Amino acid sequence: MCSITKEVVFDAISTVIDPEVGFNLVEMGLIYDAIIDENCNVHVIMTLSTQGCPLHQMITTWVKEAVERIEDVGEVEVEVVWEPAWNISMAHDNVKQALGGM
Amino acid sequence: MKAISSDFAPPLKLISPFFSAGVIFYLLSMLALLFFEPTFSYAQMNVAGWIHLFLLGFVMMIIFGAMAQLIPVVLEAGHAVVDVYYVIFPLLLVGASLMVAGFWLMPGILPYGGLLVLVAMIIFAVENVATLRKTTIRTLTIKTVAWSNGYLLLGILTGFAIALGLSGDLGINVPLMLKAHVYAVLGGYVVLTIIGLSLILIPMFSLAHGFEETAINRAFKLVITGVGIVFAGALFAQEWLMYIGYALNMLGVFFYIWQIYIIARLTVRKEMDIWAKSMIFAFGTLIVSIVLGLVYFMSGKESILHASVWFILLGFIASMITGHLYKIVPFLVWFERFAPLVGKEKVPMLHEMYSKEGASMMFWFTASGVVLGGLGLLFESDMLFKGGASFLFAGAIFLFITMRKMLAYGK
Question: Whole-prediction pTM value?
Answer without folding.
Answer: 0.88
